[in-house]
Amino acid sequence: MKDYWQKALTFEEYLKIAEERAQNNPNKTDPYQAYYELGLNRMRRTLKKYQVDEAQLSNLKEKNFAGKVLIITESWCGDASATVPAVSKFFEAAGNEVKIFLRDSDQTLINRFLTNGTQSIPIVILLNEDFTVQSNWGPRPQYGLDLLKKFKENPETYPLEEFYNDLQVYYAKNRGKDAIEEILNLL
């Protein structure tokens, strides 16, 4: 894990890459190009609106988590664009180091944290001070998982477009609070 940590980016570096990909992606055949600008806009909205919840911060301090947070993500991902900025800012405010590992740069890491056999992101990895994995979370809060289940069980009455809309409305209103709460419950 230490090697992955050393290859990872700060949140600010990640944001710069997201901006570059949205505005002038050097990879002209990137299959996710249409999603970079949308993801960047969602990240900016989250950063603008997010405020550290003092009760959650107090909860984290009571748990004495002195480790690091490594997040596997990509800026084109809708779930990531809604949660990664809040999770990053929360743990940074608490004094924990946070780094971002780009899933598509080296898939050996995400392959250790598959979700139902898929490389779903974001994955938040809580590392102890010696870089051992304490726990991991992702790719979306329980409410989002419940919406996905509803869609998969009956896509005729709950179509994909409605699922995506409901999920993004939830993310916009929740501003990462549920994701952070669920991560705190893992500590």
Percent of sequence in beta strands: 5-15%
Count of helical stretches: 9
> Strand order of the main beta sheet, please?
2-1-3-4
Structural class: alpha+beta
The biggest sheet amounts to: 4 strands, mixed
Instruction: Using the CA coordinates, give the radius of gyration.
Output: 16 Å
How would you characterize the overall build of this protein?
With 187 residues, the chain is an alpha+beta fold. 56% of the residues lie in helices and 11% in strands. The chain has a four-stranded mixed sheet. Strand 1 (68-73), helix 5 and strand 2 (98-102) form a beta-alpha-beta unit. The model has no long low-confidence stretch (mean pLDDT 95).
Give the SSE layout.
Layout: H1 2-7, H2 11-24, H3 33-49, H4 54-63, E1 68-73, H5 78-93, E2 98-102, H6 107-110, E3 123-127, E4 133-137, H7 142-153, H8 160-174, H9 177-186
Parallel strand pairs: 1-2
Antiparallel strand pairs: 1-3, 3-4
Helix pairs in contact: 2-3, 3-5, 7-8
